[in-house]
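Hi all, long-time lurker, first post. I run a small reading group and we've been trying to get comfortable going from sequence to structure in the token notation. Rather than ask abstract questions, I figured I'd post a concrete chain and ask someone more experienced to write out its structure so we can walk through it together at our next meeting. Sequence below, copied exactly:
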Amino acid sequence: DLHSFPTRRSSDLHIGDKTIKELIDARAPLVCGSNYPRKMIALLSYNYICGGTDRVADLTVRTKNGRTNMTVDRYAYSAFSIKGAIDSVWKILPGNIGYVNMARLQVANVNSVMQQLKGCGSIIFDIRNYPLGTYAYIAQYLLASQQNFARLAYPNLDYPGTYLWKGYFNVVGPAKSNKHIFHYQGKVVLLVNEFTISHAEWTTMALQTVPGCITIGSQTAGADGNVSRPVWPGKVTSPLTGLGVFYPDGSPTQRVGVKVDIEVRPTAEGIRDGRDEVLEKAIQHIQDKR
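-- Answer (accepted) --
Happy to help. Here is the structure in token form:
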């Protein structure tokens, strides 16, 4: 649980002579992140927590049977061939529930996937990843009319430090020229977490305009907007955005993340058992609403 781990029962877990909380507190200032869950990803991704120069590491860990000490070998990250989980682009889950992996759905395949899932009573769009620019094409099937989904603030170059609202809202929905596209009228559920960042958050905001849409998961990265990479003294670069991204009602998304209707976080027990508790909650929610 990246959200509450350092303050919840972490004082008894060690890497070497340091507790996990001590390591996080000392090294969190070294990484960037719009909010705490995203900083945790950076700490873990760059081995600021688990990394070290010794060939072995002494660990104190929690197991099903309680706390235990162990010594493990260290390996360079390059020694592993990590390809990530491979899953289908779409599938139909028990109960006639459609599921779409947004990380694998290509623009060219949106029509065929939606055709395959149009008979499903509900569709779950998994956005716990980085989509491939498909949100506007998907929205044409889910919305009966165009909807505002975001409002941008641009820097006022005449008065540095101030921003101006863009004169229009960003919209999604069916185009008049696409009369062949059917209107899906089933339930729509979105899955999000701290890996939902930037374009993934933008995609979520767009699909949240679908009537009755429910977003399930946990706080997203809060890093929506364009990306600039200025070069600072010492040839150091740091990515940042020059735009403010808001919902049409003015609610912010940066730092806080997108709106989540039902908060669900994985548990250590669920991870050990190989379960996807966020997806399970989505399925349960759909079944309860029938």
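A couple of things your group might point at:
The helical segments are 20-27, 36-45, 110-117, 135-142, 199-207, 268-272, 277-288.
Confidence is low (pLDDT under 50) at residues 1-9.
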